[in-house]
Amino acid sequence: MRENRTMPGTDARPSKKAQRTRSKEHGEGAHSEPKGHKGPSTSRRGPTTKAHLYDLAKRFDVPGRSSMTKEELVDAVARAHQSRTRAASRYSAGF
């Protein structure tokens, strides 16, 4: 027979030991700053190289990609991807 165990409340304060550990690791009064934007805090894939961005731009047939900076490639690839995704969703919706 299984015991009826309750989950600890998520609003419960951490133990004194956990509080001390956090203070040691993150400094006294550690807190997180608001992101200021929606979405994940960090990139899931990590840093992207300019060569990788160039390959994506080539795949999306972005004009002028050879003379773009890394930042310009990031923007151009994002716009091309968004445009392609939007077009695909219109096609699948029957518009």
The count of DSSP E runs of length 2 or more, i.e. the number of strands, is 0
As a percent range, the share of strand residues is under 5%
The number of helical runs is 3
Shape, per Cα inertia axes: elongated
| Share of residues in helices | 40-55%
Q: Which structural class is indicated by helix and strand composition?
A: mainly alpha
Question: What is the string of SSEs from the N terminus onward?
Answer: HHH
**Mean pLDDT score, rounded?**
77
**First and last CA, distance:** 57 Å
- What is the C-alpha radius of gyration, as a whole number of Å? 23 Å
The main pleated sheet reads as:
none
Uncertain segments:
none
Structure characterization notes:
This protein is mostly helical. The chain has a domain of 42 residues. The protein is 47% helix and 0% strand. The chain contains 3 helices and no strands. Helix 2 packs parallel to helix 3. The radius of gyration is 23 Å and the shape is elongated.
Short description:
The protein is mainly alpha-helical. The protein has 3 helices and no strands.
Protein traits:
95 residues; mainly alpha; 3 helices; elongated; Rho termination factor N-terminal domain-containing protein
Give me the secondary-structure topology.
Elements: H1 16-26, H2 50-59, H3 70-93
Helix pairs in contact: 2-3
Biased composition (Basic and acidic residues): 22-36
Protein name: Rho termination factor N-terminal domain-containing protein
Region (Disordered): 1-53
